[in-house]
TrEMBL record:
One of its GO terms (molecular function) is poly(A)-specific ribonuclease activity. Its main location: cytoplasm. This is Nocturnin. It comes from Poecilia formosa. Belongs to the CCR4/nocturin family. It is found in: Cytoplasm.
Amino acid sequence: MGGGATRLYNTLTQTFSGSSSPLSLPPSYLSPHQPALTNLDSDFCLQQKNSPVCPLDPVELLQQCEEALRDRPPHLQRNFVYIDHGDDVASVPIRVMQWNILAQALGVGVDNFVRCPLEALSWSRRRSLILEEILAYRPHILCLQEVDHYYDTFQPVLANLGYSSHFCPKPWSPCLNVEGNSGPDGCALFFDESRFELLDSVNIRLSAMMIPTNQVAVVTTLRCRSSGRCVCVAATHLKARSGWEWFRSAQGSDLLWHLQNLVQELGGGNSNVKVPLLICGDFNAVPSEEVYRRFATSPLGLDSAYKKLSQDGVSEPEYTTWKIRGTGECCCTLDYIWYTKDTLRVDAVLDMLDEKQIGPNRLPSYSYPSDHLSLVCDFSFREKE
């Protein structure tokens, strides 16, 4: 490894230096084809024993990620678009990031990104790019999909940056069919412990027409330490591919049912008590699909944050994913951050990469680690009525 990669390696391995034994994972994390865990990321194995664990400095770690990636093309710059609400009320924003990070096993396996060099899909490179993207924006709430390196990378590294988290793997993850996989992929939800206190978290296996499916959601209830206000956050990933529109609609209805029950419970059964709600996910659905309409017309009073980028305020971005597979090119909007418009307001939205920045070979690439773009928004609580 070069100097930058070596320093990043040494910093990250410190995360585990306080343990007296190598990392262990729950039995459900193991592939049924593996009798024992043998595929822990070598860059994250235990290096020293009985040493104190020191919190990581996010600025230093970001610099080391950038140094480890110094041979790549220039970092893709994105800017925040700030929403003018016509008032001078000071608020402390809540930064939320939604991102399908692309499961490593799928990226190098079945996804078949024909225009992406294999080297650009290496985990050592993608890991640094993913961490760089997260560290660049430092969200207070982070919702990820296709996470298959939760236990050996994201949970321990982000825990040392001050994040607590919950992970829900898919029951039948396709990652487990890829040789050398790192376990099942799933949804992960992280929150900044300095900003929020955990009240509750539940993993949901989504159903369609009362039949359990392979798609999941993590739903976490948090209390803001500065304001005392509560917010319920959901991270989900619905069924992919054309022809499954009815299935996604049923899964979305199931998630909405769970969330309606939860906010009713949080409101003490009083329908007049409005609980702030954020729903982040890769819905695998374009805005014309039924599942999108179900969320847009839900009694929960939801709106899609990224509509704020449009001039008319009602249109979604042209794309949140842009890739070329063996089956052809796909450029469409599949990812959303939904919020309750009566209790939360959007203060800023991170703009999208343009076609020139993405490049002719599309995503993923040497510059960007996923086929989906991250969505980042700043929210604030509306004043209670």
